Amino acid sequence: MTDQATPQKSPRVSRRTLLRLGLLGGIVASGAIIYDRTKEVGVANWFKWMLRGQTTRFAPASRVALVSVPSYDDDLLRAIHSLWQNANAPDLQGANVVVKPNIVEFVPDRPCFTNPHVVRALIQYLRDTVQVKSVVIAEGMTFRRDPQATLIQTGYRDLLDSQHIDFVDLNYDDLVLIPLRGGYAKLDKLFMARTVVQADALISVPKLKTHHWTQISGSIKNLFGIVPGIKYGFPKNTLHIQGIDAFLAELLDSLPTPKRFALVDGIVGLQGDGPLFGTSVASGALIGGSDFLAVDATSARLMGFDPATIAYLSFIAWAGLGQLDPNKIELRGASLNSLMRSYEPAPKI
């Protein structure tokens, strides 16, 4: 009689074991993600930013004001008054104010810089209505150029003379070493222009435009001009290599001026090959608010872009430095839908 082997049953894995294996796999995968994201910045910083970002979900909505202004020949003083009131701007009475436009360069027939008519109206409003103590225009131009020639070409020299306003070249201003609070970049201190450090308030007045590094250029990207070129070179590439998203977050978080406001010149914007060589777009808008991220997110939507897909905006939102979610941004004034355009994006480099 031939012996017959008893068939062996395949081992069965219990549901509990499967759940444990799935949980273990999830932990390993999550650990890999956390390691990848924290190896440059450290676990403590990563979790700190993540938790702070979550708190913005429970913070009050940020107010952003929109004004429809079809032309630079319109009553800009009245438009700025409306925007200032709707945006619930900070009280700057008796303050020493730095107005920081974007005077990156002069390129004929390219609206790559903040129009001086907007800055002129803002200065008049600050002096006559807000009653600030003092106001200066300050900029640290990106390229090593003769700043006086650029001021003449862009029309700012006439503005300075007619309004009896001082201009401070932030590239060559006295330097102050300030601590960086966020830990986003690989720096713990940064040299900054004394004029900005000692001011009571900073008003960022960018041009609404596309940018081949950051997709858009708004009130936060405009802060790059407060970093002195005499220390960090032209066009400040030593800071770009820190990671543009992280460094912009660092600038915003560590800004020493206690009060700030953003006023975006979107009356005529620039699309396509920004920040210098794009073509004009008649957007007919001024955008303003104290939350720079909310202002830039609104500016992106006005241009037809989703701000959640713009790396530096989503990074800054994740770090809890402002509002990005449209449900947490309270719009006042003109309708966003009425001002929206479809900007051609900048080519990536």
Query: What would CATH call the architecture?
Result: 3-Layer(aba) Sandwich
Distance between the termini: 81 Å
Mean pLDDT: 88
CATH superfamily: LarA, N-terminal domain
Overall geometry = globular
Largest sheet report: 10 strands, mixed
- In total, the number of domains comes to 1
Order of helices and strands: HHEHEHEHHEEEHEEEHHHEEHHEH
Q: Tell me how many strands there are.
A: 12
* Low-confidence spans: none
Indicate the radius of gyration in whole angstroms: 25 Å
Residue fraction in strands: 15-25%
The CATH class assignment is Alpha Beta
Helix content class: 25-40%
Explain what this protein looks like in three dimensions.
The structure is a single chain. The chain has 349 residues and is an alpha/beta fold. The protein has helices at 15-38, 43-55, 76-86, 116-130, 147-154, 156-163, 194-197, 229-232, 237-240, 244-254, 292-302, 311-318, 336-339; strands at residues 62-68, 96-101, 134-139, 167-169, 175-179, 189-193, 201-205, 207-211, 215-217, 259-271, 279-289, 329-333. Strands 1, 2, 3, 4, 7, 8, 9, 10, 11 and 12 form a 10-stranded mixed beta sheet that branches. Strands 5-6 form a two-stranded antiparallel ribbon. The longest helix is centred in the first third of the chain and has 24 residues, at 15-38. The protein contains 13 helices and 12 strands. Strand 2, helix 4 (116-130) and strand 3 (134-139) form a beta-alpha-beta unit. It has one domain (56-339): LarA, N-terminal domain (Rossmann fold, 3-Layer(aba) Sandwich).
